[in-house]
């Protein structure tokens, strides 16, 4: 009986995962995107062609859509004109800023991975846990932090003037600010994914390379790097997709001058021009899914085999010699960058929450206390928001981890066609948040008529399901590479000893990739904590609001004046609760962690 | 200790293993081609063969890790198609140990007992302790596999496979990383356990002395095919093919021509060699004569004790290897290299006379 | 996707809840007799988030209304995407489970009309108090939506950094280069109001040219009022498109007052009235009508004004000395009527946003 | 073939390896304790010892992967403290192969040539091809390591270590997964390469026949310490300790008491045994006598050819193992087990008389 159940567990898990996806993702999103190709009940590619053929959207490429046969002539003209600079329209710009953001995130994130994976120092584990914190911060709070840190009168300029360097103005409202903010969100992603990969590199292989004459650096390049590249590319892919779909942070720090496609998509939804919104959403989705597919194809071709012996860490501090070691000095410099880019905005937000127009104040926290004590209906209280956030986070973690693992098992041991399945299963990463929100509204909140009954989904269960769907790809992105690196003989051994496929997974595979599962779990929790769109849609009544929802409500509240003070106070609460949660998650789950 | 015995097929075959025309492919490579084998219940069966010939693949097919492209695997008479590995009750020791790195030595050994009751009236803990002492690892029970030497890991892998009391034990070079002393001890233990518990055991080793010493029967595998299945003595003394003759043990091979049939005799480079009476030869046929190095005596001058029956030749010793209990001499005779194994304290040097008996000549007719 | 916690929907950004200025609750007419207490039941009011909760206009209205109508209960509903939610429900045939919507603006009424074939809101019929509504605020020629307050969009500038920009043309002068922050008209109320105001000021044919000049002069178009105002507060630029009630928050300190000066361009301010309307499918239309009448009473008007920091929609209501002193009304309020907007607003915003994004 | 030679210390020692009082610790475990060794330039030096005794650790310390807690490692006379592995010009074959999984077989072998010119006047490609043919892997050059059998992987690892022509070659059981035939071929090749290029080679093997056959000198390691360093013959015939006597090759051990000194003689359970003349013994001392199994003759009744010099005993054969070229008999004499190795076709059974010569008795005085 039990064995039977064990044998069925994985297939059932697959079916359940797919069912959840169907209900809270594919169906809602499909119901929106279908409008891109269906007009008046008939299939048409007209709207797609209109957008692609509009120079505003696609710049130079618009011509190729409208008149494919004119391309050679056009190219010729371009060559004759001496290669003038080419505009690629809104899509082009969106991709360009995403590419820049990706590069920046990787550049900022990689040294962090090196530090965390290869050096031992006091607080390493804590630091590793906290890397995920930026991930949960609402963009308005990041905007506040960036303004206070990098603004004309920001902390950075204050500090620079102290050391006698002139103010660096003009960062804000430029592409630089947007790219930096994207790095703020995504560099930690790079760091986390790469650290996990780095920690599973086989030490013996590195030693082989060294004994064959490779210097430390060469051995890194030839043996370690190939094992890191997939992780770096995963992180880069995710960053690119996220920043391609980025929207509020772009407007808040860059302005409409730097608008992305998502800004347009949102405006269309606001205007209830849902057909056009669907068209934009479809193009975005096709682009990001194609990229995902190509990446997964690449990833599957990488051979990865995890060694039994892992690299040992260096001590970060080696006494006075620390200051003479260029690598360690470099890491120190990197530490300064991290403090400026990450700690700066976060600390600025906290400082903001403690200042008012007349200097230091606790008014913002008094505001929180007042909300907590309030009696009026519709009041958003901070503590229930904290509680709900934590509960949903936990629920999401409990649901998203199994879902992600199931998908990873399919992906790691799957055969033909599993790349396409994996791509489709990764779609929650690649579809515009606005589209997902709209889809949920139209199908789950409004309800769907099934056999004469109108089924409406909302409330805590729906929220957790929605969060889990948004979060599980992070679990599987972390776990898949780790799983496929496990020596298959270990699995064979376990099975020959009598373990069913499920037990092998539980007893052998998951413990071996515990670090990756944990990383995924932390992401799942973070996604849930930071999630806003679907939470607010699916919150019916006042009992299911979360910290970001509360924060957003306090933004509009001016009882402490027309400032973001109350929101920053809530942001600080969010920050602290999140940080504490991650420390706990990592400590509880970190027993197997290297 | 292992006595060689020729087992007849058992009437009941509760845990015998049969392969029926099994072919296993990796992409284009056929690692096994139409392999048929019948391992009796309780038999100690050994696979030998060159590296890459398909030994590991055979074990993996039996354990259920490879699905044969064609053919069937049966355990205890039951067709195994579709039976997952965990339901075959097969213990496996892998060539690379494959210990669970996240479990201690004790937990590794105890792992299979999560799914099976320990055999006999003992607790899991007792069973694990017993097995750990058996492989001499009792004092390292709490270590992680990472902190073990290669041989120690191999011993743990062995204990782990034995713990649940499998019906069939598949051992892929389980002792290859051990020193001779320990290897022998474990081999004896293994054999004793195997005989006590009547576990059908299929053993892969590249150590031929071990294969011959320990096995009830030996299968010689070459390039994905079975060349011969027989008792150790028969495989050694009556090789079915030139490959077997060459592969199992040292051998000297002489191309020869039959010059007479009654008594059968042949000529090697003009040297007249009397063949054993039973030889099935016809005149003029090219044959290969094999003489084991230990069957060749070094006789400083005279023909040797066996008198007229012996063939003799004059050769020069080119080099020698010390083997402990003997020397292996590389001699040259008529531009041919002749291998001789001889005991004694001082190995002969320079020009020597070599002699071998008629009975020690194996005749292989070319296929 | 990550961290985009502020992807909020159509928040009525300018409108704010507020306890500030509460001390100025010198109530006008406390003895208004509004309707009778006969109608009862539950009134479901859909509105925007900051209209409800502790210390808000909504909370006050609820308790005051319930006190007057002992057998009536007011319940608030806060759909994240505002009135769009009901348009979409109507389009999809999903039930509309509210009686009244509070917080409509003119653009939204246009959108509702454009999207739906059959009306979403019912004609308000006779609602007591409508006669007293200021003429300029008449948002709905068909008489469904009734305005209950208004804000004036204007410039707020830091008097310690720049002189008052008195006209639209001044803003394109080098003197004000890189000194103005406004909001994205696609999604922000004050941003859209400012855009419409430029259309009024420069004409349908001239406003894009004017914006081209503005852009050349370094205007910044941020997402919403909050980041824009935050940037202004942090000193990124000394001028921001905001509300004429701004000084209400800063009258405690002279220094702060100087940093928050209200500048009416060309003596104008763009009125952005907020309105309410009963749904066509309302279950309790009578109660809705009574609620609307109640909202228009002097007492309610001044409470809403103070708590929302917006001007009353009804003539002759005085929300208190402090409010009147610091909340500035433009000499020449302007606004676009429903008919002005119908059919045009979408194109204006689209052309404008393409212009900005391509710059 | 490998001739045994006793090399004296070379005057110049450009690639000799010396360990000076080296101790290596893993946490609390001392894997090596005060090990001192001097491996001559161009020598083929072998480490043998039980599993876990520290052989791998010794190699790792030489290659620079373990930092000795105390003591020094020198290569070519140069102190290696602080010299990174890549600058030691040492080729290593790990026990677990450690092939680069993302590189093909060819790329694995060619890897070291990215940093060194191939020795001789050949291109990298030629060098790789040569080495691949050397290890019989030429036709698998484009495969990924994952798709190789255990032995095939090991061969690739060997070729990879040889490719850059290292000064010192450290081989950790490089042939353990190979069949006897291939192992011998590679061993001969290895030895030839080693002698041609004068590569100092330190070899770890658990195969003692191999260790004895191939090595210039052998070090027997036990529990992190060196027990004896000597030529193979000396290690086999004149073990320095009881451990060595037991560990290298089969042996029979008899506790005995000295009963006379001129000529020296001892008594084992009442049996009088004449000892070799050179024995350094004093009366009454307990000693251990060792007799190799191959030194014991089975003489169906009479005393045997060597006459009076021999000691004889009557024993029963309890079991036997077939070794191919001989049988190993487990006999019982006076409640002691006696191991005998004997050739021939039909092994003796039942009661037998065993005899050994005085010269074949090793006397170990208890430490
Ligand atoms: N990383 C480690 N941590 C702790 N102990 C270790 C570690 N590596 C090896 N040891 C211990 O050090 C001792 C020597 O190990 P080593 O690997 O050198 O043995 P070996 O002689 O190579 O054995 P084998 O023939 O089994 O490979 C062993 O007892 C082993 O358990
Ligand atoms: N995954 C694989 N993909 C392709 N070929 C493979 C794979 N695994 C094994 N082979 C090939 O199949 C053949 C048989 O392999 P197998 O592992 O059974 O050999 P083996 O007899 O165990 O050799 P060894 O003694 O070297 O371990 C070899 O030629 C090997 O290269
Ligand atoms: Mg194998
Ligand atoms: Mg070892």
TrEMBL record, chain A:
The chain crosses the membrane at residues 12-38, 95-117, 129-150, 162-185, 228-253, 273-296, 331-351, 390-412, 424-445, 457-475, 510-529, 567-585. InterPro entries: MetI-like, MetI-like_sf. PROSITE patterns: ABC_TM1. It holds the Pfam family BPD_transp_1. The keyword Transmembrane helix applies. It is found in: Cell inner membrane; Cell membrane. Belongs to the binding-protein-dependent transport system permease family. This is Binding-protein-dependent transporters inner membrane component. It comes from Halococcus hamelinensis 100A6.
Automatic annotation (TrEMBL), chains B, D:
It is found in: Cell membrane. InterPro entries: AAA+_ATPase (IPR003593), ABC_SmlMolc_Importer (IPR050093), ABC_transporter-like_ATP-bd (IPR003439), ABC_transporter-like_CS (IPR017871), Mo/tungstate-bd_C_term_dom (IPR008995), NA-bd_OB-fold (IPR012340), P-loop_NTPase (IPR027417), Transp-assoc_OB_typ2 (IPR013611). GO terms for molecular function: ABC-type tungstate transporter activity; ATP binding; ATP hydrolysis activity. The keyword ATP-binding applies. It is a peripheral membrane protein. The keyword Cytoplasm does not apply. It catalyses: tungstate(in) + ATP + H2O = tungstate(out) + ADP + phosphate + H(+); D-xylose(out) + ATP + H2O = D-xylose(in) + ADP + phosphate + H(+); L-arabinose(out) + ATP + H2O = L-arabinose(in) + ADP + phosphate + H(+). Residues 17-248 form the ABC transporter domain. Pfam families: ABC_tran (PF00005), TOBE_2 (PF08402). Part of the ABC transporter complex XacGHIJK involved in the uptake of xylose and arabinose. Responsible for energy coupling to the transport system. The complex is composed of two ATP-binding proteins (WtpC), two transmembrane proteins (WtpB) and a solute-binding protein (WtpA). The complex is composed of two ATP-binding proteins (XacJ and XacK), two transmembrane proteins (XacH and XacI) and a solute-binding protein (XacG). This is Molybdate/tungstate import ATP-binding protein WtpC.
């Amino acid at each position: 009986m039990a064995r039977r159940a064990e044998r069925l567990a994985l297939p059932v898990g697959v079916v359940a995962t797919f069912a959840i996806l169907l209900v809270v993702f594919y169906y809602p999103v499909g119901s929106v995107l279908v409008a891109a190709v269906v007009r008046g009940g008939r299939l048409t590619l007209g709207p797609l062609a209109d957008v692609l053929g509009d120079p505003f959207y696609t710049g130079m490429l618009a011509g190729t859509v409208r008149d494919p046969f004119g391309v050679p002539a056009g190219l010729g003209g371009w060559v004759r004109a001496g290669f003038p600079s080419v505009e690629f329209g809104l899509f082009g710009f969106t991709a360009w800023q995403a590419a820049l953001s990706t590069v920046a995130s990787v550049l900022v994130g990689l040294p962090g991975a090196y530090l965390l994976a290869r050096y031992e120092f006091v607080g390493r584990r804590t630091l590793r846990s906290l890397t995920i914190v930026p991930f949960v911060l609402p963009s308005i709070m990041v905007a506040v932090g960036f303004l206070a840190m990098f603004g004309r009168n920001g902390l950075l300029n204050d500090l620079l003037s102290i050391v006698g360097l002139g103010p660096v103005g003009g960062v804000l409202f430029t592409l630089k600010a947007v790219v930096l903010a994207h790095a703020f969100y995504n560099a930690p992603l790079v760091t986390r994914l790469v650290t996990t990969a780095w920690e599973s590199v086989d030490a013996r292989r590195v030693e082989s390379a060294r004994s064959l004459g490779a210097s430390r650096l060469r051995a890194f390049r030839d043996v370690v790097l190939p094992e890191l590249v997939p992780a770096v590319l995963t992180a880069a892919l995710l960053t690119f997709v996220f920043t391609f779909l980025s929207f509020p942070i772009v407007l808040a720090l860059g302005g409409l001058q730097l608008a992305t496609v998502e800004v347009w998509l949102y405006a269309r939804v606001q205007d209830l021009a849902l057909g056009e919104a669907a068209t934009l959403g479809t193009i975005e989705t096709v682009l990001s899914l194609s990229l995902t597919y190509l990446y997964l194809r690449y990833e599957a071709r990488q051979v990865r085999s995890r060694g039994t012996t892992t690299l040992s860490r260096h001590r970060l501090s080696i006494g006075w010699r620390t200051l003479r070691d260029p690598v360690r000095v470099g890491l120190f410099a990197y530490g300064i960058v991290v403090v400026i880019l990450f700690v700066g905005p976060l600390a600025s937000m906290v400082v903001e929450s403690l200042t008012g127009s007349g200097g230091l104040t606790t008014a913002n926290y008094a505001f929180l206390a007042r909300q907590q004590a309030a009696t009026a209906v519709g009041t958003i209280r901070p503590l229930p928001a904290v509680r709900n956030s934590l509960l949903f986070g936990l629920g999401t973690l409990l649901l998203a981890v199994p879902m992600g693992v199931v998908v990873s098992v399919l992906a790691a041991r799957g055969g033909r066609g599993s790349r396409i399945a994996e791509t489709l299963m990764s779609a929650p990463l690649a579809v515009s948040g606005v589209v997902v929100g709209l889809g949920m509204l139209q199908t789950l909140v409004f309800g769907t008529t099934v056999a004469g009954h109108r089924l409406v989904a909302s409330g805590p269960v729906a929220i957790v399901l929605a969060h889990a769907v948004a979060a599980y790809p992070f679990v599987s992105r972390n776990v898949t590479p780790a799983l496929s690196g496990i020596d298959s003989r270990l699995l064979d051994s376990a099975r020959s000893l009598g373990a069913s496929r499920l037990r092998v997974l539980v007893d052998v595979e998951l413990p071996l990739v515990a670090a990756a599962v944990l990383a995924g779990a932390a992401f799942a929790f973070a996604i849930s904590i930071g999630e806003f769109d679907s939470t607010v849609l699916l919150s019916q009544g006042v009992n299911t609001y979360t910290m970001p929802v509360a924060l957003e409500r306090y933004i509009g509240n001016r009882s402490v004046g027309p400032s973001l003070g109350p929101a920053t106070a809530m942001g600080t609460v969010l920050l602290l609760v999140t940080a504490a949660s991650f420390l706990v998650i990592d400590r509880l789950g970190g027993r197997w962690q290297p | 200790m292992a006595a060689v015995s020729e087992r007849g097929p058992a009437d009941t075959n509760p845990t015998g293993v049969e392969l029926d025309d099994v072919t296993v492919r990796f992409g284009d490579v056929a690692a096994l081609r139409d392999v048929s084998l019948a391992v009796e219940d309780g038999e100690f069966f050994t696979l030998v063969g060159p590296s890459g010939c398909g030994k590991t693949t055979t074990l993996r097919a039996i354990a259920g890790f490879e699905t044969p492209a064609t053919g069937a695997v049966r355990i205890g008479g039951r067709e195994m198609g579709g039976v997952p590995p965990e339901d075959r009750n097969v213990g496996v020791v892998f060539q690379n140990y494959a210990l669970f790195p996240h479990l201690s030595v004790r937990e590794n050994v105890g792992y299979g007992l999560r799914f099976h009751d320990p055999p006999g009236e003992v607790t899991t803990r007792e069973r694990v302790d017993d097995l750990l002492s058996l492989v001499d690892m009792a004092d390292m029970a709490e270590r992680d596999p990472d902190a073990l030497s290669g041989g120690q890991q191999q011993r743990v892998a062995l204990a782990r496979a034995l713990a649940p009391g499998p019906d069939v034990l598949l051992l892929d070079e389980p002792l290859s990383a051990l020193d001779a002393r320990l290897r022998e001890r474990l081999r004896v233990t293994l054999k004793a356990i195997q005989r006590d518990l009547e576990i059908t055991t299929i053993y892969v080793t590249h150590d031929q002395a071990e294969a011959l010493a320990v096995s009830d029967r030996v299968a010689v595998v070459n390039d994905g095919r079975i060349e011969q299945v027989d008792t150790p003595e028969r495989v050694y003394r009556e090789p079915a093919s030139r490959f077997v003759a060459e592969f199992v043990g040292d051998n000297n091979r002489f191309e020869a021509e039959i010059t007479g049939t009654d008594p059968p005799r042949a000529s090697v480079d003009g040297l007249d060699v009397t063949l054993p009476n039973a030889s099935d030869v016809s005149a003029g046929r090219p044959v290969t004569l094999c003489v084991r190095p230990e069957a060749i005596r070094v006789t400083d001058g005279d023909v040797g004790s066996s008198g007229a029956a012996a063939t003799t030749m004059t050769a020069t010793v080119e080099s020698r290897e010390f083997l402990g209990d003997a020397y292996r001499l590389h001699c040259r005779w008529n531009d041919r290299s002749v291998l001789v194994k001889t005991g004694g304290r001082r190995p002969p040097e320079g020009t020597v006379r070599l002699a071998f008996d008629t009975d020690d000549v194996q005749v292989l007719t070319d296929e | 996707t990550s961290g985009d916690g502020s992807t909020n929907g159509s928040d009525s950004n300018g409108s704010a809840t507020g306890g500030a200025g509460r001390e100025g609750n010198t109530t006008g007419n406390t003895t208004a007799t509004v309707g009778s207490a006969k109608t009862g039941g539950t009134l479901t009011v859909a509105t925007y988030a900051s209209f409800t909760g502790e210390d808000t206009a909504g909370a006050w209205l609820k308790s005051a209304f319930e006190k007057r109508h002992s057998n009536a209960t007011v319940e608030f509903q806060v759909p994240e995407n505002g009135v769009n939610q009901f348009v979409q429900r109507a389009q999809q045939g999903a039930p509309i489970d509210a009686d009244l919507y509070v917080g409509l603006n003119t653009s939204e009424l246009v959108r509702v009309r454009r999207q739906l074939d059959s009306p979403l809101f019912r004609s308000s019929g006779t609602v007591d108090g409508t006669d007293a509504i200021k003429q300029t605020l008449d948002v709905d020629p068909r008489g469904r939506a009734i305005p209950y307050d208004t804000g004036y969009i204007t410039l707020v500038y830091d008097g310690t950094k720049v002189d008052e920009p008195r006209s639209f043309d001044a803003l394109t002068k080098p003197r004000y280069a890189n000194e103005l922050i406004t909001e994205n008209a696609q999604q922000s109320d004050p941003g859209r109001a400012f855009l419409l105001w430029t259309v009024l000021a420069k004409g349908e044919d001239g406003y894009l040219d004017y914006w081209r000049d503005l852009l050349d002069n370094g205007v910044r178009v941020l997402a919403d009022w909050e980041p824009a105002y935050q940037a202004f507060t942090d000193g990124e630029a000394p001028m921001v498109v905001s509300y004429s009630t701004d000084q209400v928050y800063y009258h405690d300190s002279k220094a702060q007052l100087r940093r928050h000066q209200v500048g009416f361009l060309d003596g104008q301010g763009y009125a952005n009235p907020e309105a309410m309307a009963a749904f066509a499918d309302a279950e309790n239309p009578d109660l809705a009508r009574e609620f609307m009448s109640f909202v228009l009473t002097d007492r309610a008007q001044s409470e809403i004004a103070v708590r929302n920091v917006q001007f009353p929609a009804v003539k002759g209501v005085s929300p208190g000395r402090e409010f009147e002193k610091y909340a500035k009304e433009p000499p020449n309020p302007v606004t676009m009527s429903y008919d002005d907007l119908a059919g045009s607003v979408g194109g204006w915003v689209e052309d404008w946003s393409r212009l900005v994004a391509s710059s």
